[in-house]
Amino acid sequence: LYVDGTLDIETADKIIADLQVSLDDIRVMNTTKKDNPEFFGSIIVNSGLKITGPVTQPAIKGNVTLQDGTNITYREINDITVQKTQQTVTFASLSGDSADAIIPIARMREISGMPAIQTTIEINPKSKFNIEISSGYDIHIGVSGSGLLNYAMLPNNSMSLTGSYEINQGTANLKFTGWPLKNFLITPGSSLRWDGDIADPTINLEATSKVEGSYVNPVDGKTRYVD
Questions:
Q1: What does the pLDDT read at residue 157?
Q2: Inter-residue contact 118 to 160 (CB < 8 Å)
Q3: Looking at residue 211, what is its pLDDT?
Q4: Given this model, what pLDDT does residue 144 score?
Q5: Which of 110, 155, 148, 100 is nearest to 127 (CA)?
Q6: Coil, helix or strand at residue 106
Q7: Residues in the chain where the model's pLDDT stays below 50
């Protein structure tokens, strides 16, 4: 990781940054399911970022490339059973030491604003993404592919994402209660596209499942097995 530039510290409560930051094969995340059951894995990046303005609310521009070795998993597991301990809601008020402990956190938030971020995200074709969902059914999707996305976050914490991600290869396993496990291959060229709203991509996805069958050849009367 390389940092070059200046920090203007003439005014102690308003330090101004003018920095160029370069990352070369930096592992910025390395967690397991034990650390965070909902989101875990490894993220390796190259990037070049320009950081300017007050350090409490900087402007960040540049590019980030997800490198080979990136392998992350998102899990959404819904437990539809309700335990007896979950049927009771207890209301409590903060007083004394509990209330005093919150004050320093509030003061920290007063002096630290949200940054303005504008970056280009390039995804290496060897990066891998996994999704696991369990909510009355079970599905596991694993894909790899390439993409070029533009990510922006404003100081008011509003975010946007534009661009597309094309799947080069992938698999999907689907299990409904009472039905056997079905295995699918995702067709290369399937894609996801964002036009602003991060939570609302346009999905163009095709997947095929091989089914074995047989028929009797009317010519020789022999059974033929086909997929």
A1: 74
A2: no
A3: 87
A4: 92
A5: 148
A6: helix
A7: 108-111
| Model pLDDT, residue 90 | 58
Return the number of other C-beta atoms located less than 10 Å from residue 194's C-beta: 20
d(CA 88, CA 213): 54
DSSP secondary-structure letter at 114?
Answer: P
With CA atoms as reference, report the closest residue to 45 among 79, 70, 14, 75. Answer: 70
Look at residue 170 in the predicted model and tell me its pLDDT: 92
Count of other CB atoms within 10 angstroms of residue 14: 11
Cα–Cα distance measured from residue 7 to residue 48, given in angstroms and rounded to the nearest whole number: 18
| Residue for token pair 């709203």 | 197
Nearest-5° Cα angle at 50, 44 to 54: 120
**CA separation for the pair 151, 72 (Å, rounded):** 19
- Give the chain's count of helices (H) and strands (E): 1, 15
